[in-house]
Design a protein that fits this description.
The structure is a single chain. This protein is mainly alpha-helical. Helix content is about 75%, strand content about 0%. The protein has 23 helices and two strands. A two-stranded antiparallel ribbon has the order 1-2. Strand 1 and strand 2 form a beta hairpin. Helix 2 crosses helix 7, helix 4 packs parallel to helix 22 and helix 21 runs antiparallel to helix 22. The radius of gyration is 25 Å and the shape is globular. The relative contact order is 0.16.
């Protein structure tokens, strides 16, 4: 009797997973009352559920598999990847606690509502909606295609990647539409555990197959002894003043210390994203924010990336058979059931982030953009129904984009991180710095997005298609587009804030700042403040900044690597430990994320008469339709014109 094929095991485990998904989706729908708490689970998610889901969605399968492949391709020069756990935790320490208390006080449940509440700016709401769409279509689509291709290769090509992608999207669509945020929370725990187990099992199998760590280190030492292979273990200087990727040559290779620092800013975009805030604002209290950021994300997931993912990358360095997708395809022949289980674990890890991205994008567009402008009289039931329809539209769009336009999907996904990083400034203004004025924040974000766009592959590609040949390539001076955006974002915000302080003071903003000051300020241990911030700057400089160049030689002796591991890998291990200590110091000792028991009363705004907006909304809707038709015609004409010219 022939042994079951990988396809049979994929189908078997897939049906079990579907059954579990539908069960919890139904449980969530019942608890929601179908639609009453669809968007935020009634703000009742367990803090520990939120901590796990937040960590799982931040890391997700894109990071575990993608980082391993990058390490296998380029070596250990991407130090920011090995510090991912700490970097992903820092925005949560800075913003989650204060955002939660502000949201509870003023009864809002999303990043878009927070910005609308504080800045009274619909433009910021639209920007948040665009960032959420970038994550839903680009970032999630990029992951969907990668996982589908791995599953297809494991099946020996008997199931196409497109078919697998459609199946995964259908599962995703089912539980997001049925159960909303509550289903995402329930299933997110299972999906995060599946991601962890798949990563651990894959790394163990590859470690054993490659001959354990001694054999892997011996091969890396032989590679480092070759002048061509040594670049995999040395950062190429502090910075390289070149026009960028695709424009001119680099010294050694394009990954400098400044590349790592600027790429770290892009990783911060995950913690600043609308979907990360959505998890936090759907939680019933702040008990697990500090523990979640310190021990779950920076601690456990940081170690997961540093060691198991690092081992997968190290084994694949110069050995293509140990690159994750190649190894899984080979493993399917000898152990099909285990391969199917590992692949399903990574697929579940992809869905924890994709489900959140779909829900948040649909909610932001429907609740915070469409409804206020075009249908303010919509009931909650109608709003939920329209959101569910839009989730379905987005899910279909994700599949089509991922498989029909993979290059565009990858460009959108990469730009999502740079765009989300620009939300750092409005978050700082909301939570910490009251002197940041509304015009300054708007101008800063606008300039930041433009700078990030024109230094990223997406913007350069679009401008080039339109015949605008910019004199720089992607990441000029080996600086990531997120950092270019933040530089202009901060610069413009500071300049405009200095000349617009008269616009900073409104009665409501004063009320909100007074609440934050009275409720949360002064909790930190004052003597630690200057030391803590100095320690943070020192850690950033040495772990992912210009000081990373010291890691090239810090653990190198006369006979090679003094600890048998690549010097940059040992440097990363050391600064991961120091990074976890830094996060603990900020979260607990300075109480920036520690739990506080407060009796928060709901803010009641003064009553106002609401005028009838139906006629104005009808005019806006007609204008939107005409604008959309004109825009579509312009795009078609542009494509036809340049296509004919080519």
């Amino acid at each position: 009797m022939p042994a079951p094929s990988p396809v049979m095991w994929i189908l078997l485990f897939g049906f079990v997973y579907i059954a579990v998904v539908l069960f919890w989706a139904r449980q969530a729908a019942t608890a929601n009352g179908n639609y009453r708490s669809y968007f935020s689970a009634g703000h009742s998610l367990s803090p520990w559920v939120s901590a796990l889901v937040l960590a799982g969605s931040s890391v997700s399968a894109w990071f575990t598999l993608g980082s391993a492949d990058i390490l296998a391709r380029d070596g250990f020069v991407h130090g920011y990847l090995l510090q991912a756990g700490v970097l992903l935790a820092l925005p949560g320490v800075l913003f989650f606690k204060r955002s939660w208390f502000i949201a509870q006080r003023y009864r809002v449940s999303s990043q878009a509502e927070l910005f609308k509440l504080y800045y009274d700016s619909q433009a910021l709401v639209v920007i948040v909606a665009c960032v959420a769409l970038l994550f839903a279509v680009g970032f999630a689509g990029m992951q969907l295609r990668a996982i589908s291709q791995i599953a297809s290769s494991v099946s020996g090509g008997s199931i196409s990647a497109f078919t697998i992608g459609c199946a995964l999207s259908l599962i995703l669509l089912g539980y997001v539409v049925i159960g909303g945020m509550r289903a995402i929370g329930f299933l997110g725990v299972l999906q995060t555990v599946s991601l962890i187990s798949a990563t651990l099992v894959l790394s163990f199998l590859i470690l054993v197959e490659a001959g354990l760590i001694g054999a892997i280190n011996a091969r890396m030492q032989a590679l480092a002894a070759d002048s061509a292979g040594a670049q995999a273990f040395e950062v190429s200087g502090v910075i390289q003043f070149v026009a960028g990727l695709g424009r001119g040559s680099f010294y050694d290779h394009p990954v400098s210390a400044v590349t790592n620092l600027s790429s770290a800013y892009a990783l911060l975009g995950i913690g600043l994203s609308p979907f990360a805030l959505k998890i936090v604002l759907s939680t019933r209290n702040t008990k697990a924010i500090a523990a979640g950021q310190t021990w779950v994300l920076a601690g456990f997931f940081g170690l997961l990336v540093l060691l198991p993912v690092g081992v997968i990358g190290a084994a694949g360095l110069g050995r293509p058979e140990f690159i994750s997708h190649s190894y899984l395809a080979a493993l399917a022949q000898s152990s099909p059931w285990l391969t199917a289980w590992v692949v399903l674990g990574f697929a579940a890890g992809m869905q924890v982030m994709a489900g959140l991205a779909l829900l948040v994008a649909a909610e932001t567009v429907v609740r915070h953009v469409y409804k206020p402008f075009f249908a303010s009289a919509m009931s909650r039931r109608q709003t939920v129904t329209l959101t569910r329809i839009f989730v379905a539209v987005l899910a279909v769009g994700v599949v089509l984009m991922a498989f029909l336009a993979p290059v565009s999907t990858s460009a959108l996904g990469a730009f999502a991180l740079s765009a989300s990083a620009q939300l750092l400034i409005p978050m700082l203004g909301l939570c910490w710095f009251g002197w940041m004025t509304r015009p300054a924040v708007l101008a800063g974000v606008g300039f930041g997005l433009f700078a990030a766009f024109v230094t990223d592959a997406l913007g350069i590609g679009i401008l080039g298609y339109l015949g605008l040949d910019v004199p720089w390539g992607r990441y000029p001076w080996t600086i990531h587009s997120a950092a270019w955006g933040l530089f202009f974002n901060i610069l413009v915000c500071l300049l405009v804030s200095a000349i617009s302080q008269n616009a900073a003071r409104t009665e409501f903003r004063e009320h909100l700042r007074a609440f934050v000051s009275e409720a949360l300020s002064g909790q930190g241990t004052a003597p630690l403040n200057s030391y803590a911030w100095a320690a943070g700057l020192a850690w950033g400089f040495l772990a992912v900044g210009p000081g990373l160049i010291f890691g090239n030689y810090a653990f190198v002796g006369d006979d090679g690597w003094s600890m048998d591991f690549p010097s940059l890998w040992v440097w990363a291990m050391l600064f991961w430990l120091l990074g976890v200590t830094l996060v603990w110091l900020l979260a607990y000792r300075m109480q920036m994320a520690s739990h506080v028991e407060l009796d928060i009363t709901s803010y009641e705004p003064p009553p106002t008469l609401r005028p009838d907006q139906s006629a104005a909304e009808a005019r806006r809707l007609r204008s939107l339709i005409m604008f959309a038709l004109a825009g579509a015609g312009l795009v078609i004409l542009t494509v036809w014109s340049f296509g004919g010219a080519g």
